[in-house]
Amino acid sequence: MGFKINHIAVVVADVQQALGFWRDALGLPLQRVEHNAREQVDIAFLPVGNEGEIELIAPTAPESGVAKYLAKTGGGLHHLCLEVEDIALALSDLAAKGVELITPEPRLREDGILYAFIHPRATGGVLLELYQLPHAAKSELA
Questions:
Q1: Helix extents (H) in 57-100
Q2: What's the pTM value of the predicted model, to 2 decimals?
């Protein structure tokens, strides 16, 4: 099974304020900003070469998981996302190995991406997200 880094997510209090560093000072291009109602976040997407992107994530509701994370930690690195060819197979393999899954069944985003989360207790402290891109948009995996 091949993997590729899709994105690294950073929790921030305010996307526009955070762009002052990531876009303006560091010089990363801003691809787009979107609102994800299901996860209750605003997300800024900043591509980094051809390798993936930085996602700046800000909560839009005080009861969201990201808002709770921000209140507890003050923000910072939230999760690492790896692309997989077959997310159902990856989750099945991980579950068979006793890995703790937050999302045992993939969720579907509006853009066709399937995603799921692996608990930090299973990874040594890193929240891990898996992505399966829609067939037409899949990139070459190693």
A1: 65-73, 87-96
A2: 0.84
